[in-house]
Design a protein that fits this description.
globular, single chain, about 120 residues, three-stranded antiparallel sheet, five-stranded antiparallel sheet, mainly beta, Immunoglobulin-like
Length: about 120
């Protein structure tokens, strides 16, 4: 077997795929009304946030990062200056990740708002 370096455009959303798989395998998640699950974890220099909609309604999450020190939210997730919006159809899951900027201390605090439609 040989390893080769891959280009970013060969595997779009590779980190999301990896973290979706990780999130699906973790059993210790925060439960919301027995219909939805939410969790976050660190993997190397990434903080990833996983959400799974087990219900039959559309689930909308809005994560407002009130404190964000030494972490960057990729532009593709932003719906405001420090806000991420996730819209998750029934029986689906989503993941986002934040990137650590350097080796300094990290501080993050967020508010989670959610709704079902």
């Amino acid at each position: 077997m040989t390893l080769r370096q891959v280009k970013v455009d060969e595997y779009p959303n590779l980190l999301e795929r990896v973290y979706l798989d990780c999130g699906a395998r973790v059993r210790d998640r925060y439960q919301l009304k027995n219909e939805c699950e939410f969790m976050s974890a660190w993997c190397g220099s990434h903080l990833w946030i996983y959400a799974a909609n087990k219900g039959n309604k559309l689930w909308t999450l809005e994560i407002d990062f009130e404190t964000l020190i030494n972490l960057r939210i990729p532009k593709k997730y932003l719906s405001g200056s420090n806000t991420v919006r996730m819209v998750i159809p029934a029986n689906n899951d989503r993941v986002i990740y934040l990137k650590r900027i350097n080796t300094d201390i990290v501080s993050v605090d967020w508010k989670l708002k959610h709704d079902w439609k």
